[in-house]
Write a structure and sequence with these properties.
CATH superfamily of the largest domain: Tetratricopeptide repeat domain
CATH topology of the largest domain: Serine Threonine Protein Phosphatase 5, Tetratricopeptide repeat
Number of helices: 15
CATH class of the largest domain: Mainly Alpha
Radius of gyration: 19 Å
Number of domains: 2
CATH architecture of the largest domain: Alpha Horseshoe
Structural class: mainly alpha
Largest sheet: none
Shape: globular
Length: 290
């Protein structure tokens, strides 16, 4: 229920559902009792939301608490999930060493257990580690493996996230058409299935590609729409993404001039996100299964 609430963009509601569960879980752990199985996902889910809201310290604390507990009871799958969560935190703040270390640890466990959706996310994080080190060839290889895996198992929600990574890599390689296609496909799944935070991330990726193609006006519209959506949800831009987005915005502002830039930004802020998405060809699909 909490993750469904988060997928719709209602982070306040999701936190309210989870915080009490985390408190109860901590009390059970402190008392030495076996945890109620129904409470086991609480730490992970609450940490996921804290990370997306920019509270990286609290997120890592919760992930580590979950790792320690599940290691104690011999739940290797949940340990790997927590390790993947820590790698997500490291990815968001740009700690490449911790990103790779925890992604590799989780990947080894998930490969051994054959848990394919989780293998895909670990590969996606390793792609981003290589991307941050400017090893675009290795980044593309990891990303391609993740995308192909999610396509094969028909997990379009997870594919949406992997395609954002693929789009970033392609854009860095100067392959703007392929990058645009990756972002638009991601947006189609994210807008239909959620989570809404991926809609914001995809719009930001599209804005950077569109600016590379020379369309400053459309880039500003997409960045403004993403900023408005983030403000509604309370999910800030990840620190690792901030310099690139600031540079994109500054470049677009300089190209347009302040008198042109300001009203474009303001008008896009006031538009419902659904209206913005409807202007992007192939970004919204009524038949997600097709």
């Amino acid at each position: 229920m909490a993750l469904q609430t988060r997928a719709k963009g209602d982070y306040q509601g999701a936190v309210a559902l989870l915080e009490d569960l985390v408190t109860r879980q901590r009390r059970l752990i402190a008392s030495g009792n076996l945890m109620d199985p129904s409470l086991r996902p609480a730490h992970y889910c609450r940490a996921l939301i804290a990370r997306e809201q920019g509270d990286y310290t609290y997120a890592e604390t919760l992930f580590q608490e979950g790792i320690d507990y599940h290691r104690m009871i011999g739940d290797d799958e949940s340990v790997a999930q927590g390790q993947l969560g820590v790698s997500d935190v490291a990815r968001d703040i740009g700690d490449v060493t911790q990103l790779r270390t925890y992604a590799e640890q989780s990947l080894a466990t998930y490969r051994e257990m054959g848990i394919e959706w989780a293998i895909g996310f670990a590969l996606n994080n390793l792609a981003l580690a290589a991307y941050l080190e400017s090893d675009l060839s290795k980044a593309f290889d990891y990303s391609s493996e993740a995308v192909l895996l999610f396509r094969r198992i028909q997990n379009k929600l997870s594919l949406a996230e992997a395609l954002i990574t693929m789009g970033q890599i392609l854009a860095k390689q100067g392959k703007t058409l392929a990058a645009r296609e990756a972002f638009v496909e991601s947006l189609r799944y994210a807008s239909s299935l959620g989570p809404r935070i991926l809609v914001a991330g995809t719009l930001e990726g599209l804005a950077q590609v569109i600016l590379q193609e020379g369309n400053a006006t459309e880039a500003v519209i997409f960045m403004s729409g993403a900023a408005a959506l983030r403000a509604q949800m309370g999910t800030p831009v990840r620190p690792i993404d901030m310099p690139g987005l600031e540079q994109t915005l500054a470049t677009a502002r300089n190209l347009l001039g302040e008198e042109t830039f300001a009203p474009i930004w303001s008008e896009a802020q006031a538009e419902p996100i659904e209206k913005l998405l409807s202007t992007i060809p192939n970004a919204v699909s009524l038949d997600i299964a097709s």
